Amino acid sequence: MDLMNAIVALTNFVLIPGIAYGSQLAIGALGVTMVYGILRFSNFAHGDTMAFGTMITILATWGLQAAGITAGPLPTALLALPIGIAATAILVLTTDRLVYRFYREVRAKPVILVIVSIGVMFVMNGIVRFVIGPDDQNFADGERFLVTAREFKAWSGLEEGLAIKSTQVLTVVTAVIVVALLFWFLNRTRTGKSMRAYSDNEDLALLSGINPERVVLVTWLIVAALATVAGVLYGLDKSFKPFTYFQLLLPIFAAAIVGGLGSPLGAIAGGFVIAFSEVFVTYAWKKVLAYSLPEPLEPSGLVQLLSTDYKFAVSFIILLVVLLFRPTGLFRGKSV
Amino acid sequence: MKKLLLATTATALLAGAASAEDIKLGIILGFTGPIESLTPSMAAGAELAIQEVNDSGKLFDGSTVSAVQADSTCVDSAAATAAAERLITSDGIKGIMGADCSGVTGAILANAAVPNGIVMISPSATSPALSTAEDNGLFFRTAPSDARQGQIMADVLMEEGIETVALTYTNNDYGKGLADSFQQAYEEAGGTITISAAHEDGKADYSAEVASLASAGGDRLVVAGYVDQGGSGIVRAALDSGAFDSFHFPDGMIGTKLEENFGEEIDGSTGQHPGTDSEGASMFGELVGDKFDATSPFTPESYDAAALILLAMQAAGSSDPAAYKEKVMEVANEPGEKIYPGELDKALELIANGTDIDYVGATAVELIGPGESAGSYRQVVFDGGKLTTVKYR
Predict the structure, then answer these.
(1) Which chain B residues touch A171 with a CB distance below 8 Å?
(2) In this structure, what DSSP letter does residue B339 have?
(3) Does the first or last residue of chain A, that is N or C, have fewer Cβ atoms within 10 Å of its Cβ?
(4) CB contact under 8 A, A288 and B215
């Protein structure tokens, strides 16, 4: 019985939040890795692209709610998602037309594009704050829980509760669908294959008649969709605040680099590695150990490696270790 | 002859300036930031006192008072100091009703008020550290120090029979000060604090913080945070994950926002905030009517803070901070005729006639030690989703 309690406590406080957070990071990191692999620069504006997409989705959600349209037990934001993706696609394509295309045509060094993307980041950041303000916005509606802690306790008779939020399940399901679609697209369709070819060797791809502008266009469309989906899932599960999206940039980049920049599979693995390390290292293991160990071994302290304030430090450390010892990442992406 | 002329002109000018002055009073509160839902009624409280004094027309030499507002942001010391500096140098204020949060209050005091010699009366800065701050006798507060609140919290929990708690506090002067004083008092009373963990405001997700708190365990979770910020985030995450279902809230968390956010979900939770059942409180309620929420935290304290500044000016017969700072304790404390809210008119007249007054006001003001309220608290409990008063202590 005690072991069951330990498992439930671990699932409730570590596994479920870790899986949900990992999925959100993975979708975010996929967007970063796509830009890096195909357009060949680190897009620092990705966090704020996510914020922009989420903002449009929130505004559309409010519109739908005002019109009395809801998705029943699911969050209304899912219905508004296509509008958010479309608006974000327009935004990133306009940015590409106005800013990035110039630097691509002059074959600017990647580091220049990175600086340019930081400029774009500040502009997008400003737009989001200007339109929706810097405050928290809560736009989740529908059923909040699949299983509540209280119900679970009554049902199982255990001391520990287990809560599963509907947004957590939604996050994981959506992540699986999005990743499956993306891999199918990259590996099975003609456009997807031409994108991979362009990524592997630009000159050879151009020689074999691949239209570069079309590859760039499709890449941005995919990135817009990934950014918006990641942003909306994060916002639904937690809450929307422009500043936290800006902060998300660090774990997202850490995930993409740990997995190997340019490698979609790596981005997913990296997302979960970062999410679980953050949660494992900052979790206080006292309760789980107290349940699972015999009484004389029970810890009296909290058994917490790092205080939760240092969550971001964990991503930093992993990032440094990977860059020092395996610069191409776990899945042999491009070296940074 | 020339000198004499100059001297007389100067005297005449000075006399002219002293009579029928328009005194500017700064109201510096966090109109944006973590306690923005509390500040509008606090400002309204202070302005009510100013209006009362203006309506009476009995302030020395028929002077009038006007309020100038500025934003303390509650968290950004640099912005708060700049705002105070602007009010002092360009608006020429003679006193500050504020600031609100302990960190920015300390910053304004050290960087703007003391260098410029301006009196400050804060309605809500409760950090124990402010008791010993270098203030040249310029700083007062109508809110009690958290050293006292920590003691009260320990008493409330002990009386409820809660002997182990987990404690989380917002990572700033207010949170840390309150958490420390509570921990000391609670452990002295025989209670156990399983964990004392800071949380940062303004994060999207507090599940990691709550996971640690839950692992440490405890009969109740004490949240020394802000209702508009991380405090509510912590409570939400704790309820969602089933980690805790009852809480104890100190003053920064008590507000109608807490009822709106959680309602019946936190029934049985307890809390306390500065408040009193003296006649003054109900008289203040009647005086305010439905203009704004008179029971909102720190609103009566704000009325009292503004009233004290103006009464001290009257007692000194001058709006010069160096002169009236000596009178603040005198008008606030015994001996003298008791003054309740709505009686500022009478108070001004009594002072003008040379009679001593003892300002009681809306919060039974009694300034002790370095000029801070002795403090009485309203103990509350959540019942049916509403904050209800248990008793005053």
Answers:
(1) none
(2) E
(3) N
(4) yes
My answer on whether B80 and B165 are in the same domain is no
pLDDT tens digits for range B120-161: 999 999 888 888 888 999 999 998 888 888 999 999 999 989
Q: Do B215 and A283 touch (CB under 8 A)?
A: yes
Q: Is the Cβ of A234 closer than 8 Å to some Cβ of chain B? A: yes
B342: left (phi over 0), alpha (psi -120 to 50) or beta: left
Provide the number of structural domains found in chain B.
Answer: 2
In a domain, B3, yes or no: no
Residue B43 resides in a domain = yes
**Nearest one of B19, B114, B112 to B70, comparing CA atoms:** B112
A139 touches chain B (CB under 8 A): no
CATH no., domain A2-325: 1.10.3470
Q: Distance between CA atoms of A205 and A203, rounded to whole angstroms?
A: 5
The answer to whether residues B30 and B139 belong to one domain is: yes
Does residue A250 sit at the B interface (CB-CB below 8 Å)? no
Query: Do B74 and B35 form a contact (C-beta atoms < 8 A)?
Result: yes
CA A79 to CA A141: how far, in whole Å? 12
ipTM over 0.90: no
Q: Which residues of A touch B198 (CB under 8 A)?
A: 307, 309
CATH number at residue B249: 3.40.50.2300
Residue B4 lies in a domain: no
Residue B202 with chain A: CB contacts under 8 Å: 241, 243-244
Residues contacting residue B234 through CB under 8 Å, at least 6 positions apart: B168, B199, B206, B209, B210, B213, B221, B223, B225
Sign of CA dihedral B296, B297, B299, B300: positive
pLDDT band at A222; cut points 50, 70, 90: very high
Flag whether B91 is in a domain.
yes
Tokens in use for B54?
Answer: 């203006």
pLDDT tens profile A256-295: 999 998 888 999 999 999 999 988 888 888 888 888 888 7
Contact present, A153 and B242 (Cβ < 8 Å): yes
User: Could you tell me which chain A residue has the CA closest to the CA of B199?
Assistant: A309
Which residue is listed with tokens 């990743």?
A: A179
Alpha helices in B198-268 (DSSP H): 207-216, 230-240, 256-262
Segments in A67-148 forming alpha helices (H): 77-95, 101-105, 110-132
Tell whether the model's pLDDT for residue B342 goes beyond 70: yes
- Phi then psi for residue B196, to 5 deg, are -125, 100
Computed over its alpha carbons, how large is the radius of gyration of chain A?
A: 21
Q: Which residues pair with A261 in a beta bridge?
A: A334
Domain map (residue ranges) of chain A: 2-325
pTM of the model: 0.76
- Structural domain containing residue B221: 148-275+379-392
Better pLDDT: B144 or A49: A49
State which amino acid sits at residue A290. A
The number of residues making up chain B comes to 393
Tokens 């150990």 found at: A289
Q: Is residue B270 domain-shared with residue B318, that is, in the same domain? A: no
